[in-house]
Amino acid sequence: MISIVDDDGFVREATKSLLRSLGYGAMTFASAEEFLQSNQVDDTSCLITDMQMPGLSGIELQSLLIARGYRTPMIFITASVEEKTRARALKAGAIAFLTKPLNVDHLVEYLHTAHTNRKMAIVEA
After folding, report:
1. Are 115 and 45 in contact (CB under 8 A)?
2. How many domains does the chain have?
3. Mean pLDDT of the chain
4. Phi and psi angles of residue 2, each rounded to the nearest 5 degrees, phi first
5. Order of strands, edge to edge, in the sheet holding 26-29?
6. Beta-carbon contacts of residue 94 (< 8 Å; ≥ 6 apart)
7. Residue range 59-85: average pLDDT?
8. CA 19 to CA 13: how far, in whole Å?
9. Do 54 and 7 contact (CB within 8 A), yes or no?
10. Which domain holds residue 64?
């Protein structure tokens, strides 16, 4: 299951519709806190999250998940790129850092990468 965390309802639903049209299962969350309180954290095979949100940011969500022992593949999306934050997210293991509006071809490519990495992680476990 792919989890989508974004405070923009239109982006959440559009991304969910896109993923479902590509054959992926997807769930949406309006905030990092909502995602963390859900029962979906353990079942998330890939996390697509906005970088800037009220409450916990995407980068804070990444740090918290890593601290809790999760190595979920993450794809960050943002309306504005801050190079320092982008570098931090990628260094911490993010698969991609995409700008809005999303390039569908790039998203599909990175979802494939996330799926491949997830399989490799399971095989190595």
Report:
1. yes
2. 1
3. 87
4. -100, 130
5. 26-29, 2-5, 46-50, 74-78, 96-99
6. 62, 74, 75, 76
7. 89
8. 10
9. yes
10. 2-124
Largest Cα separation within the chain, whole Å, is: 38
Q: Six-digit token pair at 25?
A: 């299962």
Which residues, 6 or more positions from 9, have their beta carbon under 8 angstroms from its beta carbon? 30
- Residue 82: DSSP 8-state: -
Residues of the chain with pLDDT > 70, as a percent, come to 93
- For residue 75, the domain's CATH number is 3.40.50.2300
Tell me the CA distances in angstroms from 77 to 80, 110, 113, one per residue in order: 9, 12, 16
Q: What are phi and psi of 108, to 5 degrees?
A: -60, -40
| Size of the chain, expressed as the number of residues it contains | 125
